[in-house]
């Protein structure tokens, strides 16, 4: 009988930590790992409070440790779980969990709260598959500097940025003979309210906004898609990830979300990156890179379909313009706007304010904040807390 | 006064010979060269009989030699032209012209008559920008073997094959980590008669067939687009150029001719190559490769537009199926069908037969030819002449 080389086999298995395993991206990532038996071993899973889903994941993937950020949920989980698993809890627990070694981390915690664990984790992993936008938007230079210092690679999971990564990293490589793209385009679905008139926008319900035409995602990002704040964030991500000037980054409306990004050479040849609106495809890329894994479902050429494009009427999306104006200021304004957007959406989702009050609140904060340079990650946290508080105060006046 | 380094400057200018300079591709190529002053020098121009256009081109580009294949036209040209230009004439003159040294040759002679000059020219140039399909379809292995032996690179100009070249040559390069595409798709506009019913097809006029929806091209290729023979040829070109198995090459209907080819990795990421239906873009690529030149007009993202796709109903296009069946036979059948198609279209364009008689003629030849292996280029010429003669005989019975 031929002996199975267990040791060698284990050595090539990559150890993975998933931050945000019970969210939409986390679940998709676990499905990708399920589809690649023998390639990955789940070392750690981290959730905010959904211990029911986490318990199922623990049962299936047997991690060595888990982290539950919400203290009460952590206590409940501990009392029921296998004693062999190490359980971290609370914000402090999250930071300790972030210092665990892994080959790949998937950072899929939502919002700016991903930044602190990310900054720690960058020193303890070889690759971060980054699904969190806010960290790159609010603290891009700190994140990339830390990654460079730790020699940790960051692979974008966000579909548009992932698509650009696939186009730019390969075509700007030595084999492409030093040819650079002269312009890149991110596509935008336009979100759930794209065809709404200004009048109709004033009566929008939570349900309306959450009915995204192509993607199933978390609630905040779905609202950000409707306001195009999300697309503004992606333009900034593109700028930070690929060192591209803002004037070389375009946005084009593409309702079907199948072409995720396009890159144009000076000879007007465009390369486009196309795949179904299924986050498991960019996650698969980020986990297996530089190899290509096999994924079962792609674009079906046995059916008729269309890809439509239309120019972005940016006046219809004042928040996108605001975000891009903030980006060019190179100060704390993106931190302010991100915190404000997060808080305002929280109030909208709780039905305490109207949809159009999100605009009003953002405008208020953007015209009433002290512009300061960001000198450290601590500054990011400071202005995030400041803006959350100021936003809350303003929102109370609207409720 | 600063001296202009004439010698060094001249040395980096590439010397170009254009075969078929008065045709659609030839004129486009000269326009590309006009747009890149100082980069190229026209060494030779070759035309069949359009000496009026040729005379203008000679005046503008001052080649050292020209070739006019039609003997009478050549005599007329000689009597009027500058005596310093060497003029080759007739079929023999074409072969001598083909043996002139150049840095780049654009082979844009139509039909199988390009094969003989191509086989000679491959030994005397460093790069062939190949716009002729028939040579690769009928004699692919001889052409590529000769290119390999002469260390001459062949760059495809045909938009679909050019698009695949851009996708495959770069992404299958070492920097793409050995990942190969699992499937490629060529797009097909469907030609001028795509929406015609079977009944309507029987009444098609020459004018109907030549009304191609997206491209302005030579007459034979426009008819070949309507029958999809052209797409069959491109599938064979793809097979020969990139060593891809026939089952990994798909065809999808895309009426707008903006996406020219798509290539899919195993993880279902697709890269697509996109540019307007303007042959100057792939010609620019083939002339400047590995550098990217600047071309002024690309896809306009300031306007709304759609890319539509639909599966190919191959039963509607029996000639495509016939061409692909012939390709898999690996004998002289493609030579037979190409000669037959050429001759039948000639008769159709002269209004001697109906459009549907092209189908009838092809079917007759495909079921009445002696299947033989091709052992040399001489065999290709033999069977080409044989099939032309047999086709003519059959066509007489239809006139």
3D architecture notes:
The structure is a homodimer of 399-residue chains. The first copy, chain A, is α/β, with parallel strands linked by helices and 399 residues long. The first copy, chain A, has 3 domains: 151 residues, Rossmann fold (3-Layer(aba) Sandwich), CATH 3.40.50; 172 residues, no CATH class; 70 residues, Rna Polymerase Sigma Factor, Chain: A (Orthogonal Bundle), CATH 1.10.1740. The first copy, chain A, contains 17 helices and 12 strands. In chain A, the strands form 2 sheets. Chain A has a 7-stranded parallel beta sheet, with helices on both faces. In chain A, helix 14 packs parallel to helix 16. The longest helix of chain A has 22 residues. Chain A starts with 5 loop residues before the first helix and ends with a helix. Chains A and B meet through helix 8, strand 10, strand 11, helix 13 and strand 12 of A and helix 8, strand 10, strand 11, helix 13 and strand 12 of B. Strand 12 of chain A pairs antiparallel with strand 12 of chain B.
Strand content of chain A: 15-25%
State the end-to-end distance of chain A. 73 Å
Count the DSSP helices of chain A: 17
| Class by SSE composition of chain A | alpha/beta
Oligomer designation: homodimer
The biggest beta sheet of chain A reads: 7 strands, parallel
What is the count of distinct domains of chain A? Answer: 3
Low-confidence stretches of chain A: 1-10
Largest interface: A-B, 53 and 53 residues
* Shape assignment of chain A: globular
Helix content, binned percent of chain A? 40-55%
The SSE string of chain A, one letter per element, is HEHEHEHEHEHEHEHEHHHHEEEHEHHHH
Spatial strand order of the main sheet of chain A = 4-3-2-1-5-6-7
